Fold:
Amino acid sequence: MAFDAPVVLAVAPLVGGAVWFAAAWARRVRIRRAALWSEETVRRALGAGRLGPTALAVAAFLGVVALAGPRWGEATIVAETRALSVVIAMDISRSMLAEDASPSRLGRALREARRLVQDLDGDRVGLLAFAGSSYILSPLSIDGSALTLYLDALDPEVASQGGTGLAGALRQGGELLRASSDLADRVLVVFTDGEAHDTLGAVTEQAQQLRAAGIKLILVAEGGRTPSRIPVRDEHGTLLTYQRDEEGSVIQTARRDEVLGAVADAAQGTLVAADIPDQAGAVRDLVASYRRARASEARTEQGRLRAWLPLLVAVALLVTQAATRRTAALIGIALWCLLPPPTPAQQPARPRSSAEKAWDRHDLAGARAAYLAELAARRTDDTAWYNAGTAALADSDAETARGSLTHAAASLDPDVRFRALFNLGLLALRQAMTDSAARESRLADAERAYREALLLRPHDLGAKWNLELAVRRQHGGTSRSNPPSGGSGGGGPQSAGGGGSGRGRSQGGAGVQGGMSPAQADEVLRSIGQQELKTRRDRTGQTRRAVEPGVKDW
Structure:
């Protein structure tokens, strides 16, 4: 047996003794007062409540023991799922720091990988990182949160050897997948810019071995074709210089499509282009058709928390003690049960912004202009992009709506992402009704958007209705039903907090009542996050070896 707080356990006898002395003193006072009436009342007072001090002391002792957090025993937890076996290989070489993608090649790859882990919920996913050599960070597991922690800690400093060894990453990814069950398809997803420093023959040989083992290879390209410099920044993001080779020349790096294409052909795999805005969605659509199998994963939890047991005994003692008393205890319990429950305090409402007021007045042009003005100040807020796109959609500004909603559809927040996809599909349906020349392509866009939305909320009736409408019209259906204006998923703009679910409803918000300001809270969270990432990198990383002369370190 172990305790979460042994210090609290040491206090338990003192608390129990103090309660016993207090209850015994109260009983003696009660007997002295009874003696003022008659000898009969004294006899009754002496006969009643003899075990009261002991019962209260034991209950107090057990309550403190429960606060100490006793733990003992073990339990086996079995999780079952119909899962694929997927390994994500992340290129963390220095060339991935090039900023020809937003915010960088590595930053975009990590963002798409986080979304992919979120979309593959229930599948068995593993993670390895590679630069000059590859490292297994997580075996195949259904615990997506652990993979997200590893992804947050990845940067080139984690690797002990510079360069880009793509052949080693393919070999180790294949070994990790070969150890899994072959009842389901096995998939290796590699995020890289293709700038491999091993020979193309060695890389294609490993790709051919993956094909022979029945492993599906998906290459996700990052970066641009135009050569770009590799910035060197400090821990605060300040640009110090640019990566240079041993001769002092600034290194230029570019995406190697010829390498990526040759590897994909050798493995008979798929190459996801770098210019696709939703790479995670493209990978998810690819693996959606793969063969899945029922799998189970068992883990043993040691030292389960048992605080409820002493707490239950303490409550039983108190209830028994109260039930055996015929005076104040029962009256107090009855009064407590009859009291109405306290009403929760109402939180002060956040004042409506000018954009929300315009939306409430159905001033669509004014709402669109106000939300676009808010977007200019909060371009990193996915909710602001969603609000601007939805207001533009309501005001029939198709170009602004498409651009803003496409940006919001890449959000990591599943609620914002679902709503943006819903409204993108609605926009495509409306344009299909008015643009007969591009009708088929608009309906295809609508079908794709609603299929992605239903992956996030499979039971949403509005998305199902609009998807069926798009499919019927695309295949020559005669249905003349109009799509819902907002459906159960799209709706109007959300509040600044980003959590709204109804049309124009304000939830969350920027107006914080009391406590620290949003800027102060953001600064505190940023400092905590930086320290946490540093700790993870220290635990994950290895000592980086010195670069040998003539060996590339990017």
In short: The CA atoms of residues 323 and 424 lie 64 Å apart. Residues 496-516, 540-544 have pLDDT under 50 and may be disordered.
